[in-house]
Every structure is written in structure tokens, then in C-alpha cells.
Amino acid sequence: MATTIATPGPRNDFFKQLRTVCVPLSRLALQSTDKAAASKEIFTLVESLSGLWAAQVSSDATVLDEKLAEYTFFPVSHLLRFHDQFPIRVIEAIIKLLRFLIQYGWKQKISEDLAIQLLFFFSFTIGGSPGQAKKRDVPEETVVEGFKALEVLITAIGPSNLLASKAPDEQNETVSALGPAITVMLDGITDGVAPAVQLEALQCLQAVYTTTRNQHVLARFLPGTVSSLTKVLAPPLQQKTQRRVLVRCLQVLNIVLVNVLSDIKVRGILKQIETEDKAKQTAQPSGGTEKPQTELTPAWLRATTAQIKIALAAALKVRTHEAQDVQSAVSKFCISLLDECHLSLANCQAILVESAMMVENEETERSMLETSLQDLAAIHPELGDCIQATLYNWVTSLPRLIQSNDERIKQLAVRNILRGSRMASGMGMDSSTLNDSLGDSLRDSIVALVKSSKPSKVVGDVDENTLSTATDLTVSRPDIQSYPPVLLDSEGIKSTRAEITKLIANIGSPAQQTKLAAAMLGYLRDSEGVEQIASYWLAFELLKTTYNSTSDMEDLLDMSSLDENQYQEQVFQELYDFSASILASHSDAQDNDWRIEAIALEVTAFAASRMKEDFRPELIDVLYPVTTFLGSSTPQLRSHAITTLNVIAASCGYKSVSELVVDNADYMVNSISLRLNTFDISPASTKVLVMLIRLTGPRLIPFLDDVVAAIFAALDNYHGYPVFVESLFSVLSEVVTQGVKSDMLLLEGSNHQAVSHLKRGPQPLGVDTIVDTLNKRAKRAKRAREEEEAEPSEPHPKKPWGPDKTKEASQAKSLLDQLENPDPDEDEKEGGLPDDPSSALAAREDDEKKNQPSNTPTYALLTRVLTLSQHYLTSPTPTLRKSLLDLVATVSPALAPDENAFLPLVHTVWPVVVARIKDPEPFVAIAACKALGSMCEAAGDFMASRFKQEWGDGMAKWLRGVKREAVKGRGEMPRRTGTGAGRAFITGGKKAEDMEIVLPIRDVNGGELSSKQLVSTTSSTSGALGRFSQAHQLWDAALGLVTAILKYVRVDDEMFDEMLEVVVDVLHEPERRELKEALETINADAVWLALYERGRVKGVKSTPRAVKGFGFEFVRVSGVVA
Which of 211, 432, 541, 594 has the fewest Cβ atoms nearer than 10 Å? Predict the structure, then answer.
């Protein structure tokens, strides 16, 4: 110690610092009898020593040597004698100080005896005495510190004592002490309470296998080490262990196996095995004494590798871990063993290759210096065979694994095939057997998935009629360019579907994918059900991938791919032809699987996206079938149809789907007409026709004569099917709706003009009018006088004017005789009677028809539709009756200009239309009122006699009944009061002063007239629905009909009075202003009087003024100046 003190410089300064702490610590260690009482001071001094060593290490560690360590260890050694009496925190501080002394003081110069003592001390402190229960719990921090010190100690004593290759029968004390330490390490790895403890224990174990060069020692500890590490890596501990611990376990296990079983370490044993194998082929081996298992012999190697294979099978289950760092560690582990232990662990090659393929990740960049599985396969050909066999096993087991309930297993199985196929493709492995197995496996797997998956529910589905007839479906939208999945559409298998799609997109080369697609087409035509759908979908996905993976520039530069491209086009053309046949054979009557039709729609859209404008000729065959799916009852098909139309429109150069449909309307009309002619009619076809007419507008109507004729024929043959008839009339209604918008209903040469039948009231005569009338009379009188003066006077006639009566009578008699007794010979000779008045009239009408220009085809079409509608207004389907009445209301104003053609139509449909106002369904009666109102506006006074007759036959009674029901619904029951001409409706509720009217009334005895006040008020109690009830809506429609009759049709006085009496109670309502104006146009005075009688005109109360000598009094009326 004197030499140490004499050392100058920093070392001397550090020694002085140590002495100030070591001296008091030695005194306490030697002289203190109560160790527990002095533990606090001892802890402070030990911590001070640790701080001094740590500070010196950070500043200048070169001054530290074994002598300073010995000086510092002197007081500590006395503390270690009584370590059981100190608290655990003092022990932790001592261990920390010892770590500094070993690592920076003694280093490799520590004595063997001290090393053995410290090994036991650290081991017993961490794990307790062997075979005894722990006397006290050791905190996690103390265990971590103990493993750190143990690692430092093993690293220090390894080169000096464990490097010597001693015989297995020689017992080395250090090796004996190492056994308990390794046991503690393995317990810390498997049973560590925290990841920090496990990591430090793994670090200690790594130090053992990296510093020990004695193969016999390592072989002795190998089974327990591999077993403990496997326990951590395999389930169930795998799920509970942190990723960094798993990665460290793989790294340590790799070090253990490479340092014990690498080809270099056991090359002598491998030569012995090779020699024994050769000897077995030549002669039987001689029997000998069995050697102990600890000796490194061929038997030991065989037994060890067999156990290692079992351990690896359990440990490598960690390859399914989702963490990228764990998979990377597995990959390095497998490749390292395949490289370093290629011969010694030859029996483990299959599981190592399989694990390496499972965790292969092409997305991560690999260093050029890092060995890969492909590199090893190039060096060792048997590894290539193992890769191919592994891939084949994966492919054949895919249908079985895909039926698992665990989605991770399904995804992992698909992902493995993808990685294996990529690796095989990169290594140039091509096997026809493998390709055929891959296609069959994919098809069977998809079938199994489709059968096991539940169909997704459509939330918020829309009614099919709304979708099929809405024009906004055909608006081109850029966001509707992708399809929802047809197969595997359940949310539960979304990830599995993504993995399968990725596998299909990246499997093999484009030529290989085309061959697989061709094979799927072979299955397609020979299968049915789910198998057919799976083959169809798989063939389409494979072909779609081949087109997406190759570009035109690549094809141009690669002349060898011409044959492959031709074969690819042939396969796709076959797929497209099959899809077109599926679309053309679509029928609502057949219960087809919607998925195969949806795939056909996708194939059609893909073909359009590839061919661009060259696809336009194909629209002749596919446009109408695609459009029919807009009326499908399956929401997924409707969605697919919308997307397909958008894709076709964009690909063929149309701005929108509307433009696509309008521009190809002739194709669609032709397809529809052919189907109608063969009575191949479905609800979807009629809906498509409605949409087509709605999009194209009036310009298509003239070309629909064949279609309408076919519809008429279908109506004649299937008039007993109400739903079908209704769908056909929906087309006719759309024809009418668009036809009335045409600006060419009549030819330009015709003289027909729209006539307004609106009634106008008498115009008041002003002064100017009277003056004009007088001037006209004066001019007329003046002109008569001038004519009388200019003409000479003639005598009165001497005989009657006109022809000779006798001659005229004889001619009439001869004509009658000829009509009664015609002469055939004379008729043949002269061609009939020249003077026949009926023939002359017919000839005159024929000449007028010839001279009159005929109407347009649109007008003729609308006329035919209106004529036909009368036969179905008695249909038992209320909705059909209502739609027909709406049709009548729509078409009447359009046909009105040509009265010669329109008025006979009105005469024809009048009986059936007017009968519908008494229909039991209120909404039909409302439609009938609107239709009659439209006919009144179009025909005018032509309807006068018909309404007059109908009014007397029951229309008046019907109108009163409708009013009665409406009043009941609103809770109003008007009552009359008063007598004679002065009675009025009184319902009570307001003050008398508000609505006072004074009327002159004569008393009963015929005496003087007296004034009587009448009060008319209104109170109503609304019912449950009020004006929204059916009765009130029907009353509104009836009032609208009355308004139309009054505005456009001539009515006689009696009919007018009855109408006024029925409707007078509602004339005060603001919404009845039009009705009131129509009544006032005919007779404003009658309207005022009716309102006056019912108290609807407010008078001004004044003092009665008597007229002397007459015995009565006048009433002051509002607006009259006294």
C-alpha cells in the first residue's frame, strides 16, 4: 500500500479520496458490533466509494488498477462476512461497488479464489441458496445490479480460467461455481419479474458462451440453456414477453447453438460420422464399450441435434409474431444457423428454411454484405429443393387453413404463399406441377371462404323504383369509378380479402398468370354455383393483373412477348364473350346468383377502359343489358350498373352517362323493340325504356311507333295482369309526358292554333265607349242614306221570289224515286248519281282532309295512347287508374289545338273519366277531378251539354256528399237561422256586434216592416287530420273541378245557382279566390247576394230612416252614402 501512496499525480489524488472513505468504513466494519445500527452510515460510505470510482472512470480510467481495487476491497471484504446482517440496499450498494472494482480495477487479474467466492456471492444473492427458500425478497433493482456484476465477473475470468481446454473428467473449481450462476441466469430469463431482469440475465448468459472456449463445459450446459430459451420463445410465454426480450432471446440462442454446434466446432465429429457411414456400407461396426454422454461423440451429436430440432420447432413459432423487429430477428437466426450449422443441423433445414421464408420481407433494404436465403440456396442446392418443397406444402394446405376460424392463420397462410412464390420466381424455379396446384388451391380456397363468410347487410337501402326511374343515376360522377367487392365482402374477412388480392396480383409472371386464368376459364364452363363464381372471379382478377403489370412501352421493347400478348388477348376475349352472354341472358324470372352478373359488369367496364373509344361498337350488344340492371331488385347489382355506366361513358369519350344513353338510343330502342316483339318483357326493360325516354326527351318520341305498337299488342294479350299492365302504362305515361313538351306536335302548314276557352266577364261601359258607339251608328245611318240615293227605285215584284215550286217539286220527287229504286245499269254506266247530296258532302269532306296537312307522328302517338287509356280506366288496380287519369290530364292540353281530332277523343273518353270521380279510392277520385279540369280547359264549351246532363244525373249530389264528408272531418256543422228570404248560416262563437246585418222584415200580420239583426260567425274544430284528411283533399279537388267548369265551360243559370249554393260557404277563404273570381265572371251580383244572405258581407249599422206615407224603413248598407 506504501507504493500506492507514493504514486504521484492523479492516481495519488484519487488514492487520497479513497482513503478518506475507506478508513472510516474499515473502522465501522471491524469495530461495530451492531451492524444493523451502523448500516445507514455504512450505506453512505459505500455509495461514496461507488461515486468516487464512477467519477474517476468518467474522467480518466487509466489510473485505476488492481492495487487500488485491493485497497478499496479491504473494508468491503469485512462487510461481506456479515452480509446477512445488513439491509438489502447495503448489499445492492456493495454489489455495485464490486462491479466497478472488477471491471475497472482487477480486470483479468482477479484471483481465481476471489472470483469463485464472488460467483457464489452474486448467485446466492440473486437466487438464494440452492435447495433453500429465500430468506428475504430481493428487489428488482438489486437483481439487475447483481446480473450486471455477474456479467462483468464472467467476462473477467473467462480468458484466464475458461480458455483452457481441459478434459471432461478434470473438475475445475471455476466451472463448478459456474453451474449455480448459469442456473440463476436461466431462472432470471424464464421467471424474471421485469424485462430489465430478463435482458441482464440474457447478457450474462451470452457472456458465458462467448468467453468459454471449453466445448465440454458448453456441452454440459447446452440442454438446460436451450430448454429455457425455448420456453420463453414458445407460447404461452411468448404472448406475455416484450418484443425486445424475444429479439434478445433469439440472438442469444443463435450464439449458444453456433458456439456449440457450428460446423467448425464439431468438424471432427462430422468426420467420424462420415467415416462410420462409409464403414456401415462396407462392414458391420464392432461392438465396444458405451462412452459417457458428456463426451463429444457422434452419438452425442445425433442425440443433441434431435433434441435441438424439437426445441426449434417450438421456439420458431415466434415467426408468426406481427412485430417487424421480431421477424427480422427470426430471419437472421435461421439464416445464421443454415450457414454456420449447415451440416451439424442438417435435420433442421426444413423448419429453418420454412421460417426464413415466412419472415422474408422484400420491402426492407438488405445490405450487400448480409447473407440471404437466396445466397445460401445458390451455394447449397439442397436448400433450393427445400424451398420448392416448402412452397408446395403451403399451396396444398391453403384450402385447409383457409377454413380456420382464426383470421390471422388465414392471412398468414396466404402471405406465406406470396413470399414463397416471389422467392421461387426470383430464383428461377418454375414447376408446372406447382402452377397447377396453385390454381386449384386458390379456387378451392376462395370457394371455402365464400361458403363460410356471411353476406354483408345493406344498410339504408333505397326502394328499387326510386333508383330505377331517377334521372340523377345517370349523371357522370368521377367518384363512382370503383366497385365494392363482390366476393369476400364481409367486414370480418376484409384483411384476408386484401391478402388474397395481393397474392393474385403478385403471383408469378404475367405469362404464368395468363395460363392460370385460361385454366380457370376451363373450370368456368364446366362448373356451377359457387365453384363457377370463384373460377370466374379468379380468372378476371388474374387477367386484370396481367394488363396492369405490363405497359405498352415494355411490349414494344420486348419482341419476345408478342406471342404471350396474343395469347393474353385470346383469353380475355373468351372471358369477355362469356360476360356478354351472361348480361344478355339476364332475366328477372330466373333466380340467378347476383355475384356472377356483377362480375360480368366489372369485366365489361374493364374491357371499355382498355379499348377506350374502340369499345363503341360493342355498345350494340351490352349497353341495354347493362342498363337493365338499374331496375334490379338487388342493391349491389344496381350499384354495379351505375359504376359500369360511368366507366363506359368516361372510356368511350362521353361527358356523362346521359350523353352515352342519348347518343346510343337507337341501339337501345332496337333491343327493347326486339324483346317486346317476342314478348320477352321484364319490369327492368320497361324501367329502362322509361329512363331512356326521360333522358332523350321529345326527340325520341317519333321513333317509338314500333315500340308503342308492341306495347299495345302486349296490353291486348296480357290485360289480365294488373302489375304488368301498370308497368307498360308507365312507359306510355312517360311517352305522353315527353311528347307534350314537343314543339312540333302540329305541322307548320296547319292552321290550328290554341284557342283560349277562358270566360270573360262583361266590360263596364265608359264615356268613350258610348261616344264610339254613337259615332258608329251615325256613320252607318249616313252610309244607308247614300246607298239609297245612289240606287234607282224599283217597283215591287209581281210574283214570289225563288224557283218555280212546281218544277222544284217534280225534281225532288224524281230524286226520291231514284234513291228508293236505283237502276244498277245506270249506276255502272254513269258511276252513281251525280246529284246525290250525301256523296257530294262526302266528297267535299275528303277534299278537305286531303288539303289539310296531317299531324306529326308524335301527335298521332299521343292520340293513340289517349284512346287506349279508356279501356283500362276500369282496371282493379287503383294506382293504374290514377296514372291513367294523370295521363289524360297531361295529354289533353297538348292535343287541344286540333279540335277536329281532339274533340272526338274527348267524346270517347268522357264516360269512363267522369265515372272515376265516384271511385272508392280517394286519390283516384282526386286524379279524376284534375283530369276533368284539364279537359274543360282544352275543350271548352264542347263539354257544356255533357256536364249539364251529368250534373242532373248525380254530380250535384256527389258534390254535396263530398262537402258533407269534408265538413265532418273538420268538425264544422253549419246551421241556418232566420225566416224567409232573410235566412242565413249561423254557427255562433263571435259577438253579435262584429257581424251585424240589418234586414227589412215584414211582421206576421202584414203590418209594418221591422229591422232584424242577423249574426253570422264561424267556428271550427279541426279533426284529427284536418285539411290533410282524404275527405278534405277530395273536397279541394272537387272545388278545383268546379272552378275549371266555371272558367272554361258554358253553364246555364240553374246549374250556376246550384253550384253557387254548394260552394258559397268557402268563398271567403283566401285559397278560394280563383273560384270566387270564376263565379263573379258569370254573375257577380248573384255571388254578392249569396254572400250577403250568409253574412259574408259586413254592413254598417245606422238609425233606420222612415219614409212617410209608405209604412216601411230603409236599411243602411255598407258603401252607400246616406
Answer: 432
- Decide if 152 contacts 106 (C-beta within 8 A): no
CA distance 937 to 931: 10
Is there a contact between 701 and 738 (Cβ–Cβ < 8 Å)? yes
C-alpha to C-alpha distance for 629 and 623, rounded to whole angstroms: 11
| pLDDT averaged over every residue in the chain | 76
**pLDDT over 90, % of the chain:** 4
Please list the residues that pair with 1113 across neighbouring strands.
1106
Report pLDDT for 885: 85
Q: Are 275 and 355 in contact (CB under 8 A)?
A: no
Looking at the DSSP bridge assignments, the partners of residue 1015 are: 996
pLDDT above 70: residue 97: yes
Look at 1010 and 351; give whichever has higher pLDDT: 351
Higher pLDDT, 450 or 3: 450
Q: At 583, is the secondary structure helix, strand, or coil?
A: helix
What is the CB neighbour count within 10 angstroms for residue 297?
A: 16
The C-alpha cell 475497472 sits at 104
Band the pLDDT of 307: cuts 50, 70, 90.
very high
Determine the Cα–Cα distance for residues 467 and 684; give it in Å rounded to an integer.
Answer: 11
Question: Residue 828: pLDDT above 70?
Answer: no
Lowest mean pLDDT among 382-391, 529-538, 710-719: 710-719
pLDDT reading at 546 higher than 50: yes
- CA distance linking residue 257 with residue 248, whole number of Å: 14
CB of 916 closer than 8 Å to CB of 885: yes
Q: Supply the DSSP symbol for 365.
A: P
Tell me the mean pLDDT in the region 4-13: 64
Distant-in-sequence, close-in-space partners of 992: CB < 8 Å, separation ≥ 6? 1013, 1015
Describe the crossing of helices 173-191 and 112-127 by its angle, rounded to 10 degrees. 30
Distant-in-sequence, close-in-space partners of 54: CB < 8 Å, separation ≥ 6 = 100
Q: Are strands 1105-1106 and 1113-1114 parallel, antiparallel or unpaired?
A: antiparallel
For residue 146, what are the CA distances in angstroms to 69, 93, 98, 182, 529? 19, 10, 10, 13, 69
Instruction: Tell me how far apart the alpha carbons of residues 177 and 130 are, in angstroms, rounded to a whole number.
Output: 12
Contact 52, 17 (CB under 8 A): yes
Helix (H) / strand (E) element for 261: namely helix 243-261
CA distance 370 to 332: 9
Report the pLDDT value the prediction gives residue 11, as an integer from 0 to 100: 82
Count the Cβ atoms, other than its own, within 10 Å of residue 1075. Answer: 21
